Each structure stands twice: as C-alpha cells, then as structure tokens.
Amino acid sequence: MKREKVVIIGAGPAGLTAAYELLEENGKEKYDVVILEESQEIGGISKTVKYKGNRMDIGGHRFFSKDDRIMKFWSDLMPIQGVKSFDDEKLGRERELVEGGPNPNQEDEVMLVRTRVSRIYYLKKFFDYPISMKWQTFANMGLWRTIKAGFSYLKSIFIKKPEDSLENFYINRFGKVLYSMFFEKYTEKLWGRDPKDISADWGAQRVKGISIKAVIKDMFKKVFGKKNKENTETSLIEQFWYPKYGPGHLWETLAKKVEEKGATIQKGYQVTNVEVEGNRVKSVICQVNGKEEKIDADIVISSMPLSELTTGITGTEVPEKVLDIAKGLPFRDFITVGVLVNKLKLENKTNMKTLGNIVPDCWIYVQEPEVKMCRIQIFNNWSPYLVEDPENTVWIGLEYTCTEGDEYWNMSSEEYQEFAIGELMKMNLIDKEDIKDVHVEKIKKAYPAYFDTYKDIQELIDYINTYENLYCVGRNGQHRYNNMDHSMATAMEAVKAIKENNPSKNAIWNVNTEKEYHEVKEEKQEEGSN
User: What is the spatial distance between Cα 513 and Cα 473, in angstroms, rounded to a whole number?
Assistant: First the structure.
C-alpha cells in the first residue's frame, strides 16, 4: 500500500508531537513523514541555547498540564526523578523540592521536580505572584494603597465593565487600583500597546481563572488539603517538572525518537509557499541554501506563522479580505540577555533553601516603570545543570519584548548588552565588577498578539479550513498564545482527525478555548514555555 506523504512544517513541540503520534503503532507503514525546520535547531522557542558551558531557556518553560495525555507523554519520554512511571494518583501529589547542586550519579534523561517561586519586583520590594493575601503584601503596599485597593476591588464586584478590552477584563477581576499597580504598565511593556487597545481574548486565554476570589479560594484549599491538579489554576501551582538540561533537551530527545520511528527531519528548509489545487494542498516550496525546492504532499501539518502560511498560498486567488487579515496579524519579538555574575545584590529573605543562598525565584517580574525589562529569569533555580558553576555564579536571563525593525531590535549585541546592564545597575541589582559574561539572543515572532486585524481572525481561520488536507497547529500555526501543552494538544487532535478521516477541524481549533485549558502563565505576567 502506498504511504501518504505527510509534510510537517516546524520542528517545535507541535510539529514533533504530530510526527510522533502519526508514527505510533503501524504508522510507519501508512505515513511517510518529513519535518521541515527553517533553523538548524530543534524545539522552536522551546529550544535551549548553549553558551560557554551555560544554558539559556528562552522565556522559561514549566512542564505542567491539566491534560493527562500530555503529562504521560512527557514522563514516558523523560522519566521523573524518583518516579518510575506515570501515575494519576501521584500526578497531583506534592513532591519534594530537588535541592543541591549537580549530582554526577544522576541520569541525564530525567525530569527534575521544581518548586515554583515567582515574584513581582515593584517599589523596590517583592510581592508574591499571583498577589497573595499575606501581611507582607499589605505592608509592602502601605496602608493607604491597601485601603484604596480594597474599595476598588469591592466596586469591581458590583459594577462590571463590558469586557471589550484587556483593560476592562483585568479591572473586572482585580479592581482599578490593583490593575493600575500590577497590570497596566507591565502589559504596555510586554505588548507595546495600551491595554485598552488589546482584545479581551488574550485575558480569556491566559487569565480567565485568576482573580482575587481565585487566590482566596486557593488559600482555603491549601489549608483544608483539597488542592489538586484539576482545581488549581496553572499560575497557582507550587511544583512543576523540568528537564535536567532545559526544555530543548526534551525536544531533542523526542526528535531522535521520531527519526528512529522513520521520520526525516530536514533542517535549513524555509517554507515560502504552499501550492494548492481546488480544496487541497499539493506541495510546499522551500528555500534551501539559496535554492528553491518543491516537496509534494498528501497531507500538510503547519506550525509556521498563520499569516505567512496564508500569504504564501499559490495556485488560487486568496480573497483580498483574508490576505488583509493575514498581513495585519501582529507579533511581539523577544530578546533575552544572559548575564553571568558572581552574585546578585538581592538577599534571600525567604525560608526556602537554595544552592548558594540566592533568592529562590524562577522568574522576577519587573514592574518598575523606569526600565524596559519585563522579567528576570534565574536559571540556577530552574535547574542547577543549566549553569556551569552553580555554587559560585548566578546565571540570569533579562527578558525584553520589541517589534522587529524598531530601535531595540536594531541594536547590536554590544549595544544591547550595555543597555541591559545599565538597567540592572539602575535597579541596583548587581555591581558591575561582578559581571563575568553577557550573551544576547533574539527571537522573531515569539508572541502572537491580540490587536490590529486579530479581531477578524475567524474569517481567516474559516478560509484556511476549506483546505481539507491542511492542519494548523501550535502557537504561531494558530496565531494563539498557547503554552507547550496546548501546542502539543493541537497536534494530537490533528493526528486524530487524520487517522479517523474526520473532515472537521473544530477539535484542533478548540484547544485552549474551553475553560479547563485557561491558564495564566507567570508567563507574561506569567506564559514564555513560553
């Protein structure tokens, strides 16, 4: 029997998951799978950058999902330290923090269990993220701010604003005062837009389950022992899994298994066009080493940006309105500055043990308006194996968003290093003499944005779905701010539709739209996977 040629665009979480699922059981006999990856790396924005013995996780990726399929997939691929196999009963159980430095006797292909700590740095003080109802929170805010925030929240309970913008979405859940303190300026830094101009859809995907009420409920669940995976918002989880050598290690491991199953991964293949005939895609056109190459396809699974996929359709006349929507879909680009220092000028005033007694945070959200920096990652706390010398150095990642072509994107690496170090100095977080090394990474189209023509995206989706053998998956493939698990779930649903010859693509597009999928990712105020 002739095998169907499946072309998968992109070797990130969605593309690799799709290949693996297709080739399960007797898939090798039914499908000839080729993955086309534009770069020379595996994992998309979930890759791990290696630099002089240290590793950078681009954006930070916590391995936690409410979808048991995904948790099982991860643990089958890379066993959890101290856990022999996936077990539903153990899934939501509190596990002990992996403490201490690198253990030479530990296997490499494992996931560590990490404790989640993320705080907001504002007014030169630390606030829990999400905001907690602790005495320290009120002390940091001061009596007058606390009183104003309390009355503002009460007002938001009884007087609801129409949720026609991200600003109103936040105000309805936190009140105007807390919104102004902890969301407004941060959102402007992140997206480069006033929250008034951003669709509430972003909040519905990232923040729907979080509010002051949710924080209070979470506190009671802790006290009465009723907290578990199913009733916990993702930003409220206290532990997560993390690959020993960063997320890229897991995706590289999956890529090897996919190749062992018979798939071909072609690196350096930039897909520029898809050729269609009637309601089917017939082939994809790639640029490879400056030359054009055509690859025929029976099925195409695409995780390339939805906008580029649409504008690259040839063989038919794409409706002008659809093209206008595609061309107007916005992105935010991402810059991470890795800084290796002897120490930070931040004291660990928590009761948590850390290697080198550094602050225990995975992320520090920088709320201070005088700097452009959005977050600080402390790689030592994600995994000590990301750092060459975790006992004597601290390896941090300073996160910035910008738009390709703007003044920040166009800075040279040397200029950006100087700019980022200047911001650390302005915040009094380091001494210049403690800097050992600096490295800059730029990532295009890291975050699909929810403004401009996004409001009309359903018309674009409806058009793309008319091509019966074309499946859009992943964050950029759907222009949706998905986490890794959501991206994987879209791939799983696409493969299920392919294997069952199901013409409907609703299940693929419905991932991360139902309430049980909604999460806040510390993520971009929390969200960076991912």
Answer: 14
